[in-house]
Specification:
Order of helices and strands: HEEEEEEEEEHEHEHEEHEH
Distance between the termini: 91 Å
Bound molecules: zinc ion
Structural class: alpha+beta
Number of strands: 14
C-alpha cells in the first residue's frame, strides 16, 4: 500500500506545484498598465487600491496650506557615486537599486529616511506621463526616490503607516541640456535592460546628487498618500518638488522606446506607466518654502 500511496502523494504534490505556478503566472498579470483586462481601472479590488488616501493626486496650489514647520529637506550622501548598485527592469517600471547610505531628514519628518531605490513614470515620446499634476498640468516624466524609515526593508516599511517617504520630481524636455550629463548617461544605460527581469550592474557611472544637481529643492508640497502601484499601501509621505528638472529630448525618447513590459518579442513597449489621478477625499496638502526671516537672520547673520 505504501508503495502505491507514495507515487500518488508525489503526483498530488506535482499537481499542487503546477496549480500554484499557474496562479503565480496569472498573479503577475493581475495588474498592468496597457490592457483593459488588468489596467488601472481594474485595480480597485487589489490590496488597498480602493482606500481613502490614494496617490497620485492633482495639487491645487491655491488650496495648499503653508506650513513653515516642515522645514527644508536635508540630504546626506546623495553625491556618493558608490551608492548606485544595479538597474532593474521590473516589468512595470525601470528601477535603479542603491546601496544603503543616502538619507533625508527634515523638521516635518519624524525619523531619518534612507534612500532604497528610485524609478520613473512616463508617457510616450510625444505625450506626458507624470503621475502627480500641479494645477492640472502633467509633465513628461516623474522621478520617485523611495526612502524607508530608519532604513527598514521595503517589506517592513509597507506595514508602518509612516514607513515610506517618496521624493517626487518632475522632468520636462529642454534643448538646453542636449550635451552629455548624468541623465544622458543613465538613459543610455537603460538600453541594456529592455526586458522584464533584465538587470545591469552599476559601478559609479553617476550619483543621485548629480541627477538632481539642477533641481530646485527649496520649496515643496507634502501630503499623506499611497504607493501608486498595487497593493497601493497607504504608508507614503509624499514630498513633491513643483519645479521640473530639464532633460534632453533624447532622454525622454530612450525611456519610451527602449524598454518593454515583458519581452521584446511580445512587443509591449513600457509606456504610459502612470496611474490616473485619485480623489483627495478631504486630505490636506501642505506647502513649504525656504524663507529667511528677520529673526533667523539676526541669529545667524551676526554671530
Ligand atoms: Zn513611482
Amino acid at each position: 500500500m505504501g508503495s502505491v500511496g507514495f507515487p500518488l502523494k508525489s503526483l498530488a504534490c506535482i499537481l499542487i506545484v503546477v496549480i500554484l505556478e499557474g496562479f503565480c503566472d496569472s498573479h503577475n498579470e493581475t495588474w498592468c498598465y496597457d490592457k483593459p483586462s488588468c489596467g488601472p481601472q481594474t485595480w480597485g479590488s487589489l490590496g488597498f487600491c480602493n482606500g481613502r488616501k490614494q496617490s497620485p493626486i492633482n495639487i491645487d496650489t491655491k488650496d495648499a496650506v503653508p506650513w513653515a514647520g516642515l522645514g527644508p529637506i536635508r540630504f546626506t550622501n546623495y553625491e556618493d557615486r558608490k551608492l548606485v548598485k544595479q538597474l532593474k527592469n521590473k516589468g512595470y517600471q525601470a528601477e535603479v537599486v542603491l546601496h544603503s547610505g543616502a538619507t533625508i531628514s527634515s523638521a516635518g519628518l519624524r525619523a531619518t529616511y534612507y534612500l532604497q531605490h528610485f524609478h520613473f513614470h512616463w508617457g510616450t515620446e510625444d505625450s506626458d506621463g507624470s503621475e502627480h499634476t500641479i494645477n492640472g498640468q502633467r509633465y513628461s516624466m516623474e522621478l520617485h526616490l523611495v526612502h524607508t524609515k530608519n532604513n527598514m526593508s521595503v517589506e517592513e516599511a509597507l506595514k508602518d503607516p509612516e514607513g515610506v517617504a517618496v521624493l517626487a520630481l518632475f522632468m520636462k524636455k529642454s534643448r538646453k541640456y542636449a550635451q552629455v550629463n548624468p541623465w544622458n548617461t543613465l538613459a543610455n544605460l537603460f538600453k541594456k535592460i529592455p526586458e522584464k527581469g533584465d538587470t545591469w550592474d552599476l559601478n559609479g557611472e553617476f550619483s543621485v546628487g548629480g541627477l538632481l544637481s539642477t533641481a530646485d529643492v527649496s520649496h515643496y508640497y507634502c501630503y499623506k498618500g499611497s504607493l501608486t502601484t498595487p497593493n497601493c499601501e497607504e504608508v507614503v509621505t509624499w514630498i513633491i518638488f513643483p519645479d521640473p528638472i530639464e532633460v534632453s529630448e533624447q532622454v525622454i525618447k530612450i525611456f519610451s522606446n527602449s524598454l518593454y513590459f515583458t519581452t521584446v518579442k511580445e512587443g509591449r513597449r513600457m509606456r504610459n506607466n502612470f496611474r490616473p489621478l485619485q480623489p483627495l477625499k478631504g486630505r490636506k496638502v501642505y506647502y513649504y518654502k525656504e524663507n529667511i526671516s528677520v529673526i533667523s537672520c539676526l541669529l545667524h547673520c551676526f554671530y
